[in-house]
Amino acid sequence: MIYTLTLNPALDRTFYVDKIREFDSIKVEREERYAGGKGIDVSRVICQLGGESIAIGFLGGFVGKEMEGRLLNEGVACNFVWIRQETRTNVIIHSHDESEKEIRFNCPGPNVSPAELSDLFHHCRKLKPKPKFAVISGSVPGGIDPTVYEELVLIFEAQGARVILDTYGEPLRKGLLGTPFMIKPNKRELSMLVGSELNTIDEIISAARSLLEYVEIVAVSLGELGLLGVSENRTILAQSPQVDAVNTVGAGDSAVAGMVLALESELPVDEVIRRGAAAGTASTLTDGTATVDIENFEKILAQTKLKVV
Fold this sequence. Notes:
By secondary structure, the chain is of the alpha/beta class. Helix content is 36%, strand content 25%.
């Protein structure tokens, strides 16, 4: 079974407006609400691509209850640990004018108590069915030290799971010490991790290779340039066709969903990266947080090319 772990989930409220104007009242033409958070996004796309997973992590309050209900209505299995404080709400604004601006407001989230963190650790040690893969992703909420990801990686590895870690900053730095199977930074996050500005593809590859003492695969999101995959024996770039993007929120999480499904099917590294790139690109063609139409995915996958670099 694939488990996705989100410590700091959010209800994503997306507002669609005609134009963003300063110092003026703006009419919202349409609002959409999605259960969000990086691991939750991964579980949603896994479901949309025909796979199975269980979303775990923290939820709290009325917002948490709404999120759980929305996930269940989407067919996403979940088994959260409940906390006393309210789950956060994020706001995304899309304008339909020529600027096509996308503005995102990410809230910090609740503070998690030591007892609630202990409940989560106990929960993760007793999962049934046993985890085969675990996707640990997103930010760390208040009250929790960044070393939590190292501990969680070790907990899942002790159960025989391969762990994909998708976070940034100090949580990523600490999480690496648990030696996860894969990490998926973007260029900026990789630069932060190695402490050096990375501008060329050779610099990015060199930085990714320096991390192979901790992980088996480094997948680096390069935006329109594609998805770079670096392992001990392979360095490849998957490039999907250019599309007219409608929404980019959750594209990286969609890529992770495509990759973990390929790993579960025991496909080779090349195909893992190719499917990740295709899923990420397909996600940009739909409204809402991390949403993939499987027909779009299959069409884009057929046009996604691999290049050895």
